[in-house]
Specification:
This is Uridylate kinase. It catalyses: UMP + ATP = UDP + ADP. Its EC number is 2.7.4.22. It holds the Pfam family AA_kinase. The chain has about 240 residues and is an alpha/beta fold. About 35% of the residues lie in helices and about 20% in strands. The chain has one domain: 3-Layer(aba) Sandwich (Carbamate kinase), CATH 3.40.1160.10. It has eight helices and eleven strands. α1 packs across α3. The longest helix is centred in the middle third of the chain and has 25 residues. The model has no long low-confidence stretch (mean pLDDT about 95). The structure holds uridine-5'-diphosphate.
Length: about 240
C-alpha cells in the first residue's frame, strides 16, 4: 500500500462546512460525513490537527457592522468555534477516533487549554486534536489560527477544506464564467492579486513560515484522503515558489 505524502496535517474546516445547505447551524449528518473523512486519514497513521471556524453560527465582523463592539463580537465568534469543535469531537468519538479539544480561551469544564507541547504529544499518540476558540484574540480569523498552529506544531501542510468551491479561481466561478482554476500558486500571488483564499494575515504567516496550503472541496467523499495521498486535486499554494 502506498504511504501518505504528509505525516502531520492541519485541517481547516470552515463553520459553513458543518452547516450543510442551510449555511447556518450545525448539521449532524454533515459533520458525520466530515468525521468519516477525518477517520480515513487518521487510520492511515497521519497525525491530524483540526482548526474549526464558526461562521455558521456567528461572525464578529457582522456583529460589529450591526453596531456591536468589535472585540465583543469577535469573542462571540470564538465561542461559536467551540460549539462546532465539540460537535466534531462527538462525531469522531462516536466513530471510534480518540480526540482532544484544546481551546485558546480557558473553559476547563469542556476542553483542555491550548498547550503546544501537549498538543504535539496527543498527535504523536495518534489522537486527533481539535483547536477551538481561534487564536484567542479578537481581530483574527480561524484561517490565521490554522496558519499559526501549523507553524507551532510543525505541520507539513494546511488542508483547507471548502464546501462551496473546489480550488482557487481567478474570479468567483459562480459569478464569472471566464474564471479559471489554478493548480498552483504562491502566497505572494494570493496577496498581490487579492485572491479569496484566506485573509492577508493568514496568507502572510504561511508565506513567511513557508507552510504550503491545499484548497480543495470536501463535498466529494474521500477527498481528504486523496489530498493526503498526494493526488493533485484542488489548488496548492506554496510557501515559496518552486519548493
Ligand atoms: N475569531 C476571532 N479570533 C480568532 C478566530 C476567530 O475573533 O482568532 C472570531 C471572528 O469574529 C470570526 C469568528 O470568530 O468571525 C468565526 O471564525 P471565522 O470567521 O474564521 O470562521 P469560518 O469563516 O472559518 O467559519
Amino acid at each position: 500500500m502506498s504511504t501518505p505524502k504528509y505525516k502531520r496535517v492541519v485541517l481547516k474546516l470552515s463553520g459553513e462546512a458543518l452547516a450543510g445547505e442551510a449555511g447556518f447551524g450545525i448539521n449532524p449528518p454533515i459533520i458525520h460525513s466530515v468525521a468519516n473523512q477525518v477517520k480515513e486519514i487518521a487510520e492511515l497513521g497521519v497525525e491530524v490537527a483540526v482548526v474549526v471556524g464558526g461562521g455558521n453560527i456567528w461572525r464578529g465582523k457582522i456583529g460589529s457592522e450591526m453596531g456591536m463592539d468589535r472585540a465583543t463580537a469577535d469573542y462571540m465568534g470564538m465561542l461559536a468555534t467551540v460549539m462546532n469543535s465539540l460537535a466534531l469531537q462527538d462525531s469522531l468519538e462516536q466513530n471510534g477516533i480518540e480526540t482532544r479539544v484544546q481551546t485558546s480561551i480557558d473553559m476547563r469544564q469542556i476542553a483542555e487549554p491550548y498547550i503546544r507541547r501537549r498538543a504535539i504529544r496527543h498527535l504523536e499518540k495518534k489522537r486527533v486534536v481539535i483547536f477551538a476558540a481561534g487564536t484567542g484574540n479578537p481581530y483574527f480569523s480561524t484561517d490565521t489560527t490554522a496558519a499559526l498552529r501549523a507553524a507551532e506544531i510543525e505541520a507539513d501542510v494546511i488542508l483547507m477544506a471548502k464546501n462551496n468551491v473546489d480550488g482557487v479561481y481567478s474570479a468567483d466561478p459562480k459569478l464569472d464564467e471566464t474564471a479559471v482554476k489554478y493548480d498552483e500558486l504562491s502566497f505572494l500571488d494570493v496577496i498581490k492579486d487579492g485572491l479569496a483564499v484566506m485573509d492577508s494575515t493568514a496568507s502572510s504567516l504561511c508565506m513567511d513560515n513557508n507552510i504550503p496550503l491545499i484548497v480543495f472541496s470536501i463535498m466529494e467523499e474521500g477527498n481528504i484522503k486523496r489530498v493526503v495521498m498526494g493526488e493533485s486535486i484542488g489548488t496548492i499554494v506554496r510557501g515559496k515558489k518552486n519548493d
